[in-house]
Design a protein that fits this description.
The protein has 165 residues and is of the alpha+beta class. It has one domain: NADH Oxidase (3-Layer(aba) Sandwich), CATH 3.40.109. Helix content is 32%, strand content 16%. The protein has 5 helices and 6 strands. Strands 1, 2, 3, 4, 5 and 6 form a 6-stranded antiparallel beta sheet that branches.
Amino acid sequence: MNSIFKRRSYRKFLDKEVSMAKIEMLLKAGMQAPSACDGRPWEFYVITNKDKLLELASATPYSMCVKNCSVAIVPCYVYNKLKSPNYIICDMSACVENILIEAEEIGLGAVWIGGAPVRERIDSMRNILSLDKDIVPFCIIPVGYPVNRKDIEDRYDSSLVHFIK
C-alpha cells in the first residue's frame, strides 16, 4: 500500500523517454481494474508524438502540462459496446486510479486531467486524436519522470469516518 500513500499528482517532467515496458505496465494496471459485470469497457490511446502532445495540451483548461511529458495515455470507451453504461464513470475511474498508482510503483509520475463528462473536453480530445464519434475519451494521463518528488501527505481525517454499530 505504500504506492497508494506515496502517489501524488505530477505536472512537471524531465526530458526523458518512458520505456515501452513501463508503458505496458501502466496499461496492464489499468486493465486489471474492476468493472461492472466484468465489462472491461476501456480502450487506450498512447501518445508519444510530440506534435500530438502539444495539441493535447490545449484540449482542456488544465492540460498544459501535457506539452512536457514524454507520453500521455487517453483512456476511452465505446458507448454502444458497454455492458453496464450506468457504471462507466466508476469503471473508468478505477482504471485510471490503477494507472496512477502503478506509475508511482515503477518510478514515474502522472496526473489525472479530467475530460468526461464535460462535452467540450470530450469533443476536443476526440478531434485532436481523430477518434470516431462512438469513442468517448475519458481523460488525459500525462506520464513521465517527475522533476521533483513530492513528500507523502497524510490525508487521513478521522472526523470523516462514521461508524454505525
